[in-house]
Amino acid sequence: MIVNGIYHAKTHPGLEELLQAELKQAGAGYLFGMSGAVRFQAEDEQLYSFLLQSRVLTGLELCLSQPVDITQTDIAALVDSVDWTSVLPVHSTYRVQAFQGGLTGSSLQKLAAEIEKGIERIFIKKFEAAPKAVKEENEPEFVVNLQISVNGSCQLMLEAGGDVLQKRGRLVSPKHSVLSPAMAAGLILLSEWDGTTAMIDPFANDGVLLLEAARFAKHRTPLFEDDSLRMKKWRTFRHALWKKKREEVVDKLRDDVDWIMGFDSSPDNISRIQFSTREARLNNNIRLRVSRPNMLNYPKMKGHIITAPPVDVNLKLLGDFARKTKMSAGGYKVGLFSSIANLDTVVGMKPHRTIRLEFGDRTFSYMEFTIFDKERAARRPATRSGEQPASVPGRKIR
Predict the structure, then answer these.
(1) Do the bridges between strand 303-307 and strand 362-370 make them parallel or antiparallel, or are there none, so unpaired?
(2) Distance (Å, rounded) from C-alpha 87 to C-alpha 93?
(3) What is the pLDDT of residues 312-371, one digit of tens each?
(4) Hey, which bits of the chain come out as E strands?
(5) Residues 117-149: pLDDT tens digits?
């Protein structure tokens, strides 16, 4: 297998800086950011550390060739540019897939078949035997992807992540939700919530924000829960090192999390979230209640309100929720994620930060607001000129 290769890590457009921060923390080098992805170089120890701590990763591939112009490249020459004998063991199984802009088709499948023939030719010439190319109904050890970008450049990649990462980038319930697990985790990281104070979601929907918040507060990461990576099937995968890195995550886990609260006006939604929390073993860490978002009485404490109203949300209800929040959520920071145009006008608040994010073919805004605590300000004693006002201790949650 290629040692210290170049990897291609994917995420949602707008979350690239968070992905780069995770890579830097793991010690990866030669980071190069692009839309929805970061290229990097890492040794196995750095790579495994990154995978076990990342929350916004939605795909991982090992780069096998340099990017070239598809219109000026012969497929046979592209195949010959890769040292396949160091990538595929001669008695392994593999499949080649071809994508353009994330989509495939019959013409692309023909390109994939041509690449398979080229790989077979190289092995037969050297060993008189070749890895077996298998069809979709069979599960291969290796998956080779021909990725063609929208601008016409193409590159051969080896799939390292697989479905366990790809499902992090998909909607959990496409009918009403606007969040994938990776996007929900990204919003939590963008909000700078530290996981030790209240986190409230008034539009809980399918509960994806609540689940990601509980994982964050408990220091549980996605690949700690499900590490069925494609690369674990590679014969060069270092299982002992992976186990060692996984034990480092275990040492950081915590159980005493009970300050994450979710509300929704639909009893059916709450029932679905309860099922999801039990399935994820987070039912003791998330409090749920049926309630309209404009009828909430927020606990008198510091915390974050992070929410993503459903795509069919009533704008009047959203405005009522904002007015109620301004009245009774003093001291809270609020983060709203929505594709609604002029969201700040709808909620009647001026954001102190706005971040543009992309999901699918839509552009979303993540707006942050701070709710001024009028009661606390009124209780604060007046000071003489030059004196510092007495601090008001915040209520800690245990």
Answers:
(1) unpaired
(2) 12
(3) 888 888 888 888 888 888 888 999 998 888 888 888 888 888 888 887 778 888 999 888
(4) 6-10, 29-34, 37-41, 59-63, 68-69, 93-100, 132-133, 142-148, 153-159, 198-201, 260-264, 286-290, 303-307, 332-338, 353-359, 362-370
(5) 999 999 898 888 888 988 876 788 899 998 888
Name residue 358's amino acid.
E
Domain map of the chain by residue range? 6-166, 170-219+254-379
Starting at the edge strand that comes first in sequence, how are the strands of the sheet with 198-201 ordered? Answer: 286-290, 260-264, 198-201, 303-307, 332-338, 362-370, 353-359
pTM of the model: 0.85
Contact of 250 with 241, CB cutoff 8 Å: no
Tokens of 144: 């080779």
Q: How far apart are CA 378 and CA 381, in angstroms?
A: 8
**283 band by pLDDT with thresholds 50, 70 and 90:** confident
Mean pLDDT of all residues in the chain?
Answer: 84
Query: Taking Cα atoms as reference points, which of 80, 229, 85 lies closest to residue 156?
Result: 80
Q: Look at the domain 6-166 and name its fold.
A: VC0802-like (3.30.2130)
What CATH architecture does domain 170-219+254-379 belong to?
3-Layer(aba) Sandwich (3.40)
